[in-house]
């Protein structure tokens, strides 16, 4: 942007201010969406503070953080020196299949931080954010199928939802049709996503997702969005994409941001123009 030979420099404070506002907002919005809370569960049993078990829990969670900087899934077994058989801890993390490694790592860090605060002293805990899942326990669960419902939510039904139901059913049929551990499907403005934890076999994943999708279809009726989380898989659909929140206001936020940035840009242009006039006035005044 320039005005008669007086450019708004890429290193000028005003440009940096504008850029920082826009970039920091979109980065924050992205991370906030991935780190939105879905559910958490904690064992009623507690371990002794400063015990070998606590050391093994910390080892599992640290391993998850470190591994998430390299991949979107891993499972662990921790038995540090001095541990007895009942001190062994098992764990895993799983990120949503479309996340980049940096986003996966950021999500796992947030999940573990929240899990630590939610399940203080618990011998087992699980926490699901929009973008990732973390679990640890004192009994081995890795590789075991688990179709227990841990979280299910449906939006309020709508009265005239014939087209929505047709598209929703098409999306869910596509998700149930088989494939990878992470699946996406869309029909018009309805989108869906489904995923299994990667410790399951292909057949176990298909079995788990079939159960989640059938429950989602029967329980959410004519709802514009629905979530069904089982122990080792989930299925979701929404009119506006993967973020199935009745209070989702991303469009309004983006509109507000656009107006805000537009106003700042207008002020920037005005400042540059007034600076130009001021310099021109001083130049003319000095020439007299």
General description of the model:
Pfam families: Stress-antifung. The protein has 6 helices and 12 strands. With 288 residues, the protein is α+β, with helices and mostly antiparallel strands. The radius of gyration is 25 Å and the shape is flat. It starts with a strand and ends with a helix.
Number of strands: 12
Largest sheet, in brief, is: 5 strands, antiparallel
Q: Which oligomeric form is depicted? A: single chain
The low-pLDDT segments are 1-30, 243-261
Shape: flat
End-to-end distance: 31 Å
**Could you say which structural class the secondary elements and strand pairing correspond to?**
alpha+beta
Strand order of the largest sheet: 3-6-7-5-4
The fraction of residues assigned to DSSP E strands is 15-25%
Helical coverage, percent range: 40-55%
How would you state the average pLDDT, rounded? 81
Query: What value does the Rg take, in angstroms?
Result: 25 Å
Order of helices and strands: EEHEHEEHEEEHEEHEEH
Number of helices: 6
């Amino acid at each position: 942007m320039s005005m008669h030979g007086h450019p708004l420099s890429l290193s000028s404070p005003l440009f940096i201010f504008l850029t920082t506002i826009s970039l920091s907002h979109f980065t924050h919005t992205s991370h906030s969406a991935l780190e939105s809370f879905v559910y958490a569960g904690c064992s009623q049993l507690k371990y002794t503070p400063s015990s070998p078990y606590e050391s093994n829990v910390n080892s599992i969670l640290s391993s998850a953080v470190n591994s998430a900087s390299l991949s979107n899934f891993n499972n662990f077994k921790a038995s540090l020196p001095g541990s007895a058989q009942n001190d062994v801890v098992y764990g895993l993390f799983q990120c949503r299949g479309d996340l980049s490694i940096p986003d996966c790592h950021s999500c796992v860090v947030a999940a573990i931080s929240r899990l630590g605060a939610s399940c203080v002293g618990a011998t087992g805990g699980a926490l699901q954010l929009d973008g990732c899942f973390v679990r640890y326990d004192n009994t081995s669960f890795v590789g075991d199928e688990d179709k227990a419902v841990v979280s299910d939510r449906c939006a309020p039904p709508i009265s005239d939802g014939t087209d929505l139901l047709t598209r929703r059913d098409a999306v869910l049929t596509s998700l149930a049709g088989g494939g990878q551990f992470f699946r996406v499907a869309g029909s018009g403005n309805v989108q869906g996503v489904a995923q299994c934890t990667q410790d399951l076999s292909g057949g176990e994943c298909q079995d788990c997702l079939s159960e989640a999708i059938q429950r989602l279809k029967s329980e959410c009726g004519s709802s514009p969005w629905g979530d069904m989380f089982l122990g080792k898989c989930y299925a979701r659909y929404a009119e506006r994409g993967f973020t199935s929140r009745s209070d989702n206001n991303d469009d309004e936020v983006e509109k507000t941001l656009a107006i805000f940035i537009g106003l700042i840009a207008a002020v920037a242009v005005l400042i540059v123009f007034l600076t130009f006039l001021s310099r021109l006035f001083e130049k003319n005044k000095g020439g007299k």
